[in-house]
Amino acid sequence: MIRRSARRRDESFGRHAPLTGANENARAAATTAAPHVEQHTRSRWSVFLAYGLLAAATQALFVNYAPVTQDAARHFGVSIGAIGLLSQVFPLIYVILAIPAGIALDRFLRPALVVGAVLTASGAFLRLAADDFTWAFTGQVVAAVGQPFILNAIPGLAVGYLAEKHRATGIAAASSATFAGMVLGYLLGAFLPGESHIPTLSLITALIAMDAGLCLVGALRYPPRPSRESASVTSGLRAFRAAFGNRHVRRLCAVVAIPMGAFIALATFVQPLLAPAGVSESTAGLILALTMIAGVIGCAVLPIWADRRGREVQVMGVAIALTAGACLHLALVPSTPMAFLTLLGTGFVLLPALPIVLSLSERHAPEAESTAAGLIWMAGNLGGVLLTTAVGLFVGRPGIAFGVLSAATLLAFPALHWFGKLEHDGPMT
User: Fold this and answer.
1) pLDDT tier at 360, thresholds 50, 70, 90
2) Predicted TM-score of the model (pTM)
3) Is 234 helix (H, G, I), strand (E, B) or coil?
4) pLDDT, tens digit (0-9, with 9 covering 90-100), for 302-351
5) Nearby residues of 83 by Cβ (< 8 Å), 6 or more positions away
6) Backbone angles phi and psi of 54, in degrees to 5
7) DSSP reduced 3-state for 151
8) For the chain, which has fewer Cβ within 10 Å, the N-terminal or C-terminal residue?
9) 223 torsion bin: left (phi>0), alpha (psi -120 to 50), beta (else)
10) Given its phi and psi angles, is residue 333 left (phi above 0), alpha (psi -120 to 50 degrees) or beta?
């Protein structure tokens, strides 16, 4: 995707630039030097490895209490809905801070990432100040403030630290790391069930957040390479106008809002929704962990396949259809085998939609990639807030809750068609 976008810009330059003697000499020099520069451009994968650890830590904090919802409610002496707030606060704060964080990352990539790392680790340790719901909620809020400064950085890190030929792979790998963090969170809940293990879960994730943050701060001693594409838009409101003014980015926001929102709702409430069907907390945690593992595998395969064949829209269409079908099956035939079958399939096709969308946003708004990513994440988290709230109203009636998710997910098809039409007919802006 990114290479095709670069070729179009180069061809456009060739068609419209007047061929003066100076221009001809400059173009000849660029033609001679470009392969040499690309050949010797190094991708700093160590930065991406450290970033992946921190991105995983943020998502482990996000889902920390989701696989042990009922145990956490009994431990803190609050309702299941209150425990849901410990996860819901992440998408809610993301909606508020997505754009400011994206603008900060476009202008100050490394300092903004360090801020995100400090907030994440600080929030994780605040939960250990006292073993009660108030401190757990306070810590989750602080960690949630750091999350946009971390997740919005994926496209900017790809441009700053990876060679052009590696960027699509890097975006897919970084997105996979976020899902791997959810795997970790769900596995911890599955293997440490019970009220007595709630403080242990909090301590483990706090240590992971601290270590990951230190790794990233160390890796960021390397400055990012300046981006030729981002030179025209420096920062602030100009970056926002460049991203929001792009029709492709706006339509991608419409596409991603509902499917990502449905997934956030499932990740938050699937355990209490499956409990009436006889699915235990440890089994629900294992199902969610395997769902994330399937998503990580899907991210390693589907985005790269879709990029090479230009099938991004088709892959996202399949993901929407299978997610809606999975929710419908769980509404009609809730059981452990059905949950394993449907949710693993959903994870494999739905989670890769995120790196696909992020790659498309970087392709269409290379001059403000972090702000564009912020818009994408904001739309998805806004969908998460709305759908999680709707599901929370029916947490005691699982059939209705899964039915609502199925019907809502189908609403993404018109938005996907809208984007696909622009991709096929509209000029690249």
Assistant:
1) confident
2) 0.70
3) coil
4) 888 888 888 888 989 999 999 999 999 999 988 989 999 999 999 899 88
5) 65, 69, 72, 73, 76
6) -70, -40
7) helix
8) C
9) beta
10) beta
